[in-house]
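User: Hello! I'm new to structural biology and keep hearing that structure can be predicted from sequence alone. Could you demonstrate with Subtilisin-like protease SBT2.5? Please show me the input and the output so I can see what each looks like.

Assistant: Of course. The first part below is the input, the amino acid sequence of Subtilisin-like protease SBT2.5. The second part is the output, the predicted structure written as tokens.
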Amino acid sequence: MSMAMSSIFTITLLAWFINIPWTSSANQEAKVFMVLMEDEPVVMMSSLRGSEDIAMYKRRMTQEHDVFLQSVLEEGSYVKLYSYTHLLNGFAIHAKGEEVIDVLRRAGRVRFVQEDVKMEKHTTHTPDFLGISSGAWPALGGSTAAGEGVVIGLVDTGINPFHPSFATQTSTGPGRPVFTQGSKFKGTCAAGERFSASACNGKIVGAQYFARAAVAAGEFNTTRDYASPFDADGHGSHTASTAAGNHHIPVIANNFNYGYASGMAPGARIAAYKALYSFGGYMSDVVAAVDQAVEDGVDVLSLSIGPGKVPSGPCAFLNILELELLFATKAGVVVVQAVGNGGPSSSSILSFSPWITSVAASITDRKYNNSLTLGNGQRLLGTGLAPPTFGGVYFPVAAAADVCRKNFTTGLMESCQNADPFIRALARGKLIICMYTFDFESEAASISNVAATAQKIGAAGFILTMDPDIGSEQIKGSTVTLQVPGIILNNMESSTALWEYYNSNTIRSRSGDALFFRARARILDGRRATYAGRAPVVASYSSRGPDVNNAILEAADVLKPNIMAPGSSIWAAWSPNSEGDVYTKGQSFALLSGTSMATPHIAGIAALIKQKHRHWSPAAITSAMMTTADVLDHSGAPILAQHKNRLAPATPFDFGAGSVDPSRAIDPGLVFDAYFKNYLQFLCAVPGVDDMSIRRAVGVGCPAKRKEWCSDLNAASVTVSNLVGSRKVKRRVTNVADADEKYTVTMREPAGVKVRVTPEAFKISVNASRFIRLHLEATQRTNAYTFGEMVLRGSKNHVVRVPIAVFVSSSIGRS
């Protein structure tokens, strides 16, 4: 900084301090508040064209902030610190006295007022949780270059092109472009409502929509669903930004900054194929979308979608979508699909075929907890992504039924779904106790309705308790972000404790009407994450194996799921006008859970592997993720899985090969490769499927040289669904490292099975392949699956882990 500039800076700073109208002691009482206004900031203004328009709009917002403050506050009662114009429309002021804040809260056009707080370094966490930011990204040129040159196609609900997660990034360093049109990808941008041709901006390189089946079925509504690639739901934007969203984007929901978001492959490009809508979609539209995506030249295809049940017919692998995905794999596209949300029931898999990478969902160590402090000092734990009650004050507590008119049903009053029953003079300024009941149509939307009711009646906040008639069923919508103070007491113990305190401090008439509300409480801030506890843990909703051959649930010799990634409470991009989820309408980010959220994590990591190894097959990329996956959690203990009301050690039917480790996946040492001919041999070995069925479905018949068992497929796992006596299994490994390596093989045998492996040690040259033979012999009938693993440890520190799942039907006989 020059001397002249230093002087100007000093004078400006002195002038700012001189303008503060309080003495030193008064300064200690003053606070900084952030105020958000109604009009849209720059990032939400799709109508702005060019830097001049943006600069003019920013100047106009700043002037409006000044005029507004001058119109509602006395001169000298505040100092404006900042105008926020880009990510937020608002300002920060330094003000003394609650009367200033009260004036701002009541003023028109003010959306939200929040007291400033001390900040810590937090992100949306999954890149750090997976170790990707310190491992894979630096190895691939840094965060903004990771995934460069790779196109991820997403078949989903479209994309919101105005979101900062999808803005064009110009460079990763001096003169080096990040997003340039690749020679392989030939996709186009279908312009339409809210989606201009310029929406394909270099980050988004292709966008199309498919709705003919939906139109024919009479479900497509052009006003609601948009005849364009624009995401009117939010789900597609969420998955796209998880896979390949830009690095370090502020996550702001309900006017609160929850951290910063990054996709798994921030340098990758996105091609959106809209084939799903708020009502769902149809397979024929999805098939058309997949067809177009492969023709366009995507490298990775992410499908956070699937059928509602196992397809009818003799073989689940031969339904139209599965077959098309087989041909996508043949074309060199890595296909990643959600395994389904039917867990923890067994055989709830909805992604079936071995050519698909099927993804399970985990819970990370990030938790959003909240607490309610009662007037007697008792502290009750709960959840709720909501601001605290104002100023640390203890507010009166009132049950909803005690501040409602009596001409309404008890259920309508207690559920707080509507403001009409409330006597507002009684409810105003109190914390209202509402009850989670069977009347809640959609948990998250209903919780949002409770918050809206509290706001309408002027309540200080709400407390949602569990209904004893429902029992211990968890309230699953507790990750909805809220603008008003609120807490969900998600267990019966806390709910009971609150009611006991309330009833003992409420004075009633002989008829039972509440006369005096002496119970007091305050709600703390539930929006700040903590990072503790065992993780990852398999999420309860994540569908479980074993995989099945058909609708009568005959088990298949295929391991499903294949791999696990974070899927619970994932922050990612959203569409502000979402019609799919009412409670997220108007938001630019949403916190969602499901295997839909886990899937784009794997799609993004597959893109990182593809960036480093351009010529690897889809099977090799899947193998790299599976053989390097973690089976231990961050504490070093075996990963656990959520079941109904309990935790148990996870098995390969819960998490596949384990929790993905991106840094090791880009350098796996060995891979198990497979191609179209191998998958054809697999299909020809499926029980109950004849040659004619294969020819009709695939277009070619079975080869003369056939495999006897489906377990002969060269997968990075071994699954035998019906072991009678013994079986020989052969695998071929290929050295993809940059040096020759010696490996030793160790075996952890499944219960009831003796496994012999040859060779027990071997040396393998660069790019060479060799066979490993396993002889599985049943020693005891188990009538259940048991699990083991084969581990290959290399002299260059590569560790290749292969899960084994076996069902011993009989220990008699040989095969």
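User: So the tokens describe the shape?

Assistant: Right, they're a compact way of writing down the 3D structure. Reading them back into a model, for example: Confidence is low (pLDDT under 50) at residues 1-28, 116-124, 170-182.
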